[in-house]
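Table S2 (continued). Query chain:
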Amino acid sequence: MIIPINDRYRIASDTRQWMIQEPRTRNGETEWESRYYFGTLESAVKELREVMVRTSDGETLVDDLADIEKVTTTLSQALTPHSESILKAMAKEQG
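Corresponding output:
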């Protein structure tokens, strides 16, 4: 499963793990490179949220709070179209 988040991140999975991936340009071609690995989708989403907030440009508390809201909205919009697949994956993780 591949869940595009934005042009900077996506979440992918294989039979054993979930990965946060970032694009990398090599020989003029963009490839997605796995940077972080998780046993559950929930862990991957939580960490991605943290990474996106930590790497935002906020300089004040007000900026940071606005960035948290933006990140939450971005993740919600990216995950919603995949909700059925996500629920199945989470059920498998718990079962």
